[in-house]
Amino acid sequence: MANPLLADDSTQQVRIYIINLDRSRDRWERLCSQAVEYDLDVTRIPGVDGRAIAEKDRVDFQPSSFIHYNGRQLLPGEYGCYRSHIRALEQFVATGDKMAIIMEDDVDLNDRLIPRAIAAIESVSGARLVKLVNHRLVGFKPVCETAEKDVVGRCMHGPQGSAACYIVNRKAAMNLLVTLKPLLLPYDVALERGWSTGVETFTTQENLVEFSPYRADTTIGKRVHYRAVKRHFLLRLTAHWFRTCDQLRRWRYAIGVKR
């Protein structure tokens, strides 16, 4: 059960938006069941199926620029992921709400998600975003402890992987809708680059949600798909140089963090 002292106030402050493809009905039903169990109000964001959109019809996307920064072609699933998150941010901004939790449908809800997420975003200042789940944390630099006893900070190394769950305030979401266009990097990589987006971006040291069994059945792409679109090593030199420079920017961003 949710904390009775925080449940009503938290529900008024933040909505949970869940990105879900029409064909992934079983995932949505699982999350709806959890929402009922934990008395959470969730809003479904119809996911964009990148495979159903022809390359010539992709908006906010420049193929040559993406190859320059990544050394490979964009996967259809990556485009769908990007457009789905942009759709979620747009819907959140349109409500006028103060903040929102945006999730993908391969993580599970829990009864402490909202109060812990709010405590995390309120523990730091500025137009901000806090990632609530990551695939990896290397060189984590703590910034502060939240009222819920979670530790918030930044990572010296990355990318951390995953845009499966994060909390964002209104001003930050409005910034992201500008600075994340056009699509130059995979969405999860672009999201955590606060030095580029202008959004104060942090992460929790521990994941606030767990991945569901659906994580293994990714709708974006598997290793074999990424390998198939990679260019020859020599043709990826621009990408290697970009990643080296970006790592230096990440170090500076993490070291210079202020609460």
From TrEMBL:
Keywords from the UniProt entry: Transferase
- Glycosyl transferase family domain spans which residues? 15-189
* UniProt name for this protein: Glucosyll transferase, family 25
**CDD domains, per the entry:** Glyco_transf_25 (cd06532)
| Origin species | Rhizobium freirei PRF 81
In alphabetical order, the GO MF annotations are: transferase activity
Q: Matching InterPro entries, A to Z?
A: Glyco_trans_25 (IPR002654)
Enumerate the Pfam families for this protein: Glyco_transf_25
